[in-house]
Amino acid sequence: MTRQWHIGITGTFDVENYGDLLFPLIAETELTQRLGAVRLHRFSYHAKSAAEWPYAVTSVADLPALLPRLDGLLIGGGFLIRFDERVADGYGPPSADIHHPTGYWLTPALMALAERIPVLWNAPGMHCNDIPAWAAPLLELALAESAYISVRDEPSRAALAPFASGTQIHVIPDTGFGLGRLLPRVPSAELQRLREAAGITKPYLVVQPVRWADDGFPEFLANNAEQFAGYQLVGVPMGPVLGDDVSFFGDALPQFVQLPEWPSPLLLAELISHAEAVIGYSYHLAITALTAGVPVFTSVDLAAGKFTALAQFDTLHRLSSLQEWGAHVFFSRIGKREPSPSVQATLPPLAAHWDTIAGAIAAGRRSSSPSFARFWQKLPALLDHSAGGAA
Predict the structure, then answer these.
(1) Residue 184 Cα distances to 14, 34, 175, angstroms
(2) DSSP for 320-381, written as a single string
(3) Share of the chain above pLDDT 90, in %
(4) Three-state DSSP class for residue 292
(5) Torsions phi, psi of 40, nearest 5?
(6) Spatial distance between the Cα atoms of 119 and 137, rounded to a whole number of angstroms
(7) Each residue of 213-226: pLDDT tens digit?
(8) How many Cα atoms sit within 13 Å of 351 on the Cβ side?
(9) Which residues of 369-385 are buried (b: 16+ CB within 10 A; e: fewer)?
């Protein structure tokens, strides 16, 4: 009888944010190919049913009871390793007993490690926030005991390295670069229905509705209306939970096609993959477009934080250069093509990443380690020191 592997994955899969919703879909595809029958358990703060959401999500409040049946636990990916509380407006844990925001990444890792379940860091990111002193021992324990640690950019590796005690931290491409394996080669019937419902009848550009920075795009759009007439502009929120809203188009709103509803993540990915260009700042909007050979125009700083990992791709362009380029340069750069060699180069390290994760899960629960005993031994001293030694 073929066994079924029970694998957990933690993250913010309970919110309307395009990139976060992709990670379980990619993980399930890759691990099923390597292990066979896989049941993926998606853990986030709040439970969701498959009837109302792209897939079922289990609350982290239920993780302790489900741990004994898990064969492995993936952490992330996405911008997950953080200690600041403002993840999204109104987003918090289901119980005051669960710390925010480590309750959806660090504490699940520690719980799994205590059960000797292999913990695999699925290329999450960490930057732009400090690691508080109280968390350092916990993070050190989690990193020391994990079966495999990967992050998606060098800033994340540099931030975690001081707490890794020499444990290797692998820097790999964001797992979103493997999205092409999940999309149909020709437009699906579902995509055709979406385009008909939205009235998309011409070549189109996907535009993320955000509060535009001083990048000149609204003015560029207004000043080159005649050239844009050959295309439809499709306003697509990438992260409604983060505030994306078509109202940000302002006076230009009538020029934009709006979707009748926010699509499922794979349908949204397919819509992006058939655009002539995308314009916005979303990390996974950019990655999805790059994997499909669609040029990207972005307002982000490619020299800082997580976006440094995208600076190498030659079909990703800064919007702030629009006025310098002129309309002829912009329109010469749009148009779907084959993915660039730099995009193709992300696939071998991602294949190795999933091979490593599958191998660690197949190897089974890990042998006991003295690290936890040492941690419990020093925990009272840590708590006493944190409390200032007060009786």
Answers:
(1) 25, 21, 18
(2) GGHHHH-HHHHHHH-S--PPPHHHHTTHHHHHHHHHHHHHHHHT-SPPP-HHHHHHHHHHHH
(3) 70
(4) coil
(5) -95, 125
(6) 17
(7) 556 777 788 888 88
(8) 6
(9) eeebeebeeeeeeeeee
